[in-house]
């Protein structure tokens, strides 16, 4: 089997466009690359500038090149009896067929494979399938991206990498892949089929490296085989060992592994403070700035405490990112340096784990909604099962609609068969749960912490000591979980998974089973299913109508540009219901009654069926329908709670986007003040809670956090300790903060022409002085968009790229990667860039803060909290708006200096920091950078001077 890997560069991507370069690499049967052919092609027209920008191919390059006919005379003989391969092959294939037709050749009729599909299937965990990223990841040679011969050669290497990977897969995995694509009339099915035949001729191998079960190859054994970290019979490894001795031994081992390891004073203080709090049953608020090494600061004492006392310590993070960082970076390091075996387990929300029963059921029944995409996703997962030890969706790269696929196969409590499930001992969720059960330290996230509380502590193993990292998010997460959040699509997904149409959905699947069964009640049950199906269609219609009417209540946004799909928000208040509310409540009542009927009929039928049934085949289906009915029932209760609008301690509001209108509707009902619940659920119940983050204090005081988290009583009784750690950095030498005091000011979220023009000019000048490497933080998308084009124009001559969040495509992670990889660029970001973005070293030299990050005062939750403070005779602006904004401001500032060697500039364009009475809280809360204010035109010379004074260019 010979492969020909083809790549064209063209003047555009429409079929009428012309080829300007061709690259072809031939791979022989033995896997060697025997020939690389490359040629420019004269397109007979001018090459568009943006194509030259992308490929580097100019009109001069192609002027003397052969015409299409001449090139094809050389190319066509090379395509004889080959399998054609390309990266996103449909594009190149289309141009090839066109060229063959124009030059009088027969169309290409051989087999075609796409390395994009093969990569997704063979390497389901790659973060990007873009050719440049893939070659970088595998360390393959790719000298000139977007040049056809270089791209063809790089694609050939990628293909060989995929074929190696396929050859290493167990036979049963290949057979499942062949079977999956068999009906798909695709060359992938033909290829997998051939691979299977080859592999079947080889002697059986690989019987020990995988577990084979129900026609799937898994990487893991039964979780019941998993042993605890230490034997019960052994003495406690910390018997008679003081914390100081344990710490000294760890630091000695750290120095052996990392010759540059040095004790950091703030980290040493943190070890002691965390240890004392755990040991003396106290609560601790500890602010640990960047560079403290705070994860080790709490993990090392937590391991000591849990092993010595034989009591679990729970660690909770806000983001999955930090959870992964602890798993990938900190725990492996500690495993090397802690002088005895211990176990730290990561335990996430249930929906992150694959349910093997649902997955098996789905692929056996080919229950695919988007056949082409779903088949690739299923293939990815079949291969992933032979690689994953956790079954956690964070390991999978699921693009496009694969997220919807995941929702149908992820684990959930309502459809879990527990011990009755044939997959029980292999189950990823129960594995994670068991692992958490035998671990010393369990790492979870704030969301799961609250889900566990709501489920009566059934989910997490029991714990008395808790460390909360990224604690400045705790209040926010508590509100969302102790309140209610219902989306339009949540309800629709449940309805359509039960019944979409006569052919798709779990009810039609059951109906089909009943028709071919011999149960005497089959006819009766079929009639029940038909009635339920009709009712579900009615509910969907009512829900669509209700969502539409609720959306219509949302006001037109005053600050939205024409066609701007910004968020619409409306707060609903118990005493002031909109005049149409009765009509809406009547619709909700119809939904409430009908859903009640559906659930009652459904549960009765399932109970009768369970008594009669004897085949396992339908077991899985019955469980899933039962689970969906439970979901529907709780959605019905939530909708009723929202529509009743009668709890004065709750703030109700709706949000939607202008683009997707009622389809994007979200309903919220959140307690205005969660401090009392946090106190009852955590601070009164647990022996010790440690809250840490880089931003907990405002102007050196923790009062804001104490008030909002319900810690006042513990503060008064001396049970709460507060510590602000000194910074490990020399901020006075490492950071200069500049404020242009004559800068124009802004009202609202939109800048006037003068402001936008002055800002774009100033940012461009500063960017040139700092050679790009600049992050600009905005508080509104609208203003970011206003500045994007003028800034791009101002920097057009200087080779500095401008990247804008929401303007340039790509997720936050991709934008940051592009920013870090490019030598000179300015990245414009809004809310999500204010924190959690880590760009150490040279990539970031200048941080510009356009506006102080006040939350919009008209956001329903902010509004309700302000009203509550007013009733308590407190000033909402000083008690709520300023502290919230200061904490965001400190987070933003924290992006600049990430290591002891970083140096940089912060520009604050908002003159309120020096003009207003509250400005000092912002500046005094920072960790001591050098601060100067000056006229705007003096700023760039001062920046250049400061950057050069220490030899930094």
TrEMBL record:
Q: Where is the Helicase ATP-binding domain?
A: 253-517
Its function, per the record, reads: 3'-5' exonuclease.
The cross-references to HAMAP family, in alphabetical order and at most eight, read:
DinG_exonucl
Sorted keywords for this record are: ATP-binding, Exonuclease, Helicase, Hydrolase, Nuclease, Nucleotide-binding
Family named by the database record: Belongs to the helicase family. DinG subfamily. Type 2 sub-subfamily.
Q: Name one GO molecular function term.
A: helicase activity
| Residue ranges of every copy of the Helicase C-terminal domain listed in the record | 762-939
Q: Which domain of life is it from?
A: Bacteria
Gene of origin? dinG_1
The family database entries (SMART domains) matched by this protein are listed as: DEXDc, EXOIII, HELICc2
- Its EC number is 3.1.-.-
Stated name of the protein: 3'-5' exonuclease DinG
PROSITE patterns reported in the protein's UniProt record: HELICASE_ATP_BIND_2 (PS51193), HELICASE_CTER (PS51194)
Please tell me where ATP binds in this chain: 288-295
Give the location of motif DEAH box in residue numbers: 469-472
């Amino acid at each position: 089997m010979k492969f020909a890997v083809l790549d064209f560069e063209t003047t555009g991507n429409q079929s009428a466009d012309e080829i300007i370069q061709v690259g072809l690499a031939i791979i022989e049967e033995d896997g060697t690359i025997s020939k690389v052919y490359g040629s420019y092609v004269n397109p007979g027209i001018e090459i568009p500038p943006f194509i030259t920008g992308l490929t580097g191919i100019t009109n001069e390059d192609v002027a003397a090149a052969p015409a299409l006919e001449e090139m094809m005379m050389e190319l066509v003989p090379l395509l004889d009896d080959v399998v054609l391969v390309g990266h996103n092959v449909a594009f190149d294939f289309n141009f090839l067929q066109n060229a063959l037709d124009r030059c009088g050749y027969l169309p290409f009729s051989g087999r075609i494979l796409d390395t994009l599909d093969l990569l997704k299937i063979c390497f389901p965990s790659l973060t990007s399938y873009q050719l440049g990223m893939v070659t970088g990841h595998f360390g393959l040679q790719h000298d000139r991206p977007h040049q056809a011969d270089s791209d063809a050669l790089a694609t050939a290497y990628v293909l060989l990498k995929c074929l190696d990977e396929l050859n290493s897969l167990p036979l049963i995995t290949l057979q499942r892949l062949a079977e999956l694509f068999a009906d798909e009339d695709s060359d992938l099915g033909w290829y997998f089929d051939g691979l299977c035949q080859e592999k079947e001729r080889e002697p059986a191998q690989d019987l020990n490296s995988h577990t084979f079960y129900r026609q799937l190859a898994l990487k893991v054994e039964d979780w019941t085989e998993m042993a605890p970290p230490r034997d019960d019979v052994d003495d406690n490894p910390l018997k008679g060992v003081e914390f100081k001795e344990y710490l000294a031994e760890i630091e000695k081992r750290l120095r052996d592994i990392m010759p540059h390891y040095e004790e950091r004073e703030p980290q040493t203080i943190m070890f002691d403070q965390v240890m004392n709090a755990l040991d003396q049953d106290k609560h601790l608020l500890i602010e640990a700035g960047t560079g403290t090494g705070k994860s080790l600061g709490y993990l090392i004492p937590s391991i000591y405490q849990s092993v010595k006392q034989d009591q679990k310590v729970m660690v909770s993070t806000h983001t999955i990112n930090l959870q992964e960082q602890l798993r990938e970076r900190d725990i492996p390091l500690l495993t090397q340096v802690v002088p005895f075996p211990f176990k730290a387990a990561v335990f996430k929300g249930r929906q992150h784990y694959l349910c093997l029963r649902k997955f098996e059921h789905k692929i056996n029944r080919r229950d695919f909604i988007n056949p082409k995409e779903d088949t690739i996703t299923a293939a990815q997962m079949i291969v992933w099962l032979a690689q994953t030890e956790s079954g956690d969706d964070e390991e999978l790269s699921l693009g496009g609609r694969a997220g919807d696929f995941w929702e149908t196969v992820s684990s959930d409590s309502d459809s879990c068969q527990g011990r009755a499930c044939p997959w029980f001992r292999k189950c990823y969720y129960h594995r994670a749960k068991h692992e958490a059960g035998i671990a010393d330290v369990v790492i979870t996230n704030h969301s799961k912490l609250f889900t566990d509380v709501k489920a009566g502590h059934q989910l997490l193993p029991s714990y008395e000591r808790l460390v909360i990292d990224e604690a400045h998010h705790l209040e926010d997460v508590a509100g969302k979980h102790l309140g209610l959040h219902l989306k339009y699509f949540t309800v629709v997904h449940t309805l359509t998974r039960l019944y979409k149409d006569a052919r798709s959905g779990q009810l039609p699947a059951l109906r089909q089973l009943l028709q071919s069964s011999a149960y005497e009640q089959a006819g009766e049950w079929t009639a029940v299913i038909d009635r339920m199906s009709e009712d579900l269609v009615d509910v969907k219609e009512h829900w669509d109508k209700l969502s539409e009417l609720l959306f219509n209540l949302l006001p037109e946004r005053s600050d939205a540009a024409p066609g701007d799909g910004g968020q619409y928000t409306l707060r609903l208040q118990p005493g002031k219901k909109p005049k149409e509310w009765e009509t809406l409540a009547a619709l909700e009542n119809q939904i409430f009654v009908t859903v009640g009927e559906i659930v009652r009929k459904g549960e009765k039928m399932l109970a009768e069926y369970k008594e009669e049934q004897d085949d396992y085949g339908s077991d899985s289906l019955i469980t899933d329908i039962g689970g969906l009915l439970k979901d529907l029932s709780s959605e019905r209760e939530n909708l009723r709670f929202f529509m009743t609008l009668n709890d004065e301690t709750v703030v109700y509001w709706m949000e939607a986007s202008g683009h997707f209108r009622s389809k994007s509707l979200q309903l919220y009902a959140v307690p205005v003040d969660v401090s009392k619940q946090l106190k009852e659920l955590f601070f009164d119940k647990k022996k010790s809670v440690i809250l840490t983050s880089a931003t907990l204090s405002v102007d050196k005081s923790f009062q804001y956090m104490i008030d909002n988290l319900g810690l006042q009583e513990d503060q008064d009784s001396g049970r709460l300790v507060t510590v602000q750690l000194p910074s490990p950095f020399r901020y006075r030498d490492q950071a200069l903060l500049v404020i242009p005091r004559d800068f124009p000011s802004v009202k609202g979220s939109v800048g006037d022409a003068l402001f936008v023009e002055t800002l774009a000019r100033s940012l461009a000048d500063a960017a040139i002085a700092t050679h790009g490497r600049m992050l600009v933080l905005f508080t509104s998308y609208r203003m970011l968009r206003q500045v994007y084009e003028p800034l791009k124009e101002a920097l057009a001559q200087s080779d500095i790229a401008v990247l804008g969040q929401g303007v340039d495509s790509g997720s936050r992670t991709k934008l940051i990667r592009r920013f870090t990889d490019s030598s000179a660029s300015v990245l414009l970001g809004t809310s999500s860039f204010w924190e959690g973005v880590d760009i150490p070293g040279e990539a970031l030299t200048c941080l510009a803060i356009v506006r102080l990050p006040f939350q919009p005062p008209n956001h329903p939750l902010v509004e309700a909290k302000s009203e509550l403070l007013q009733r308590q005779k407190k000033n909402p602006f000083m008690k709520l708006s300023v502290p919230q904004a200061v904490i965001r401001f400190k987070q933003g500032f924290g992006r600049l200096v990430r290591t002891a060697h970083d140096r940089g500039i912060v520009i604050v364009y908002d003159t309120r920091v020096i003009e207003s009475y509250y400005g000092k809280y912002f500046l005094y809360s920072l960790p001591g950078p050098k601060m100067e204010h000056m006229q705007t035109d003096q700023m760039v010379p001062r920046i250049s001077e400061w950057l050069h004074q220490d030899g930094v260019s």
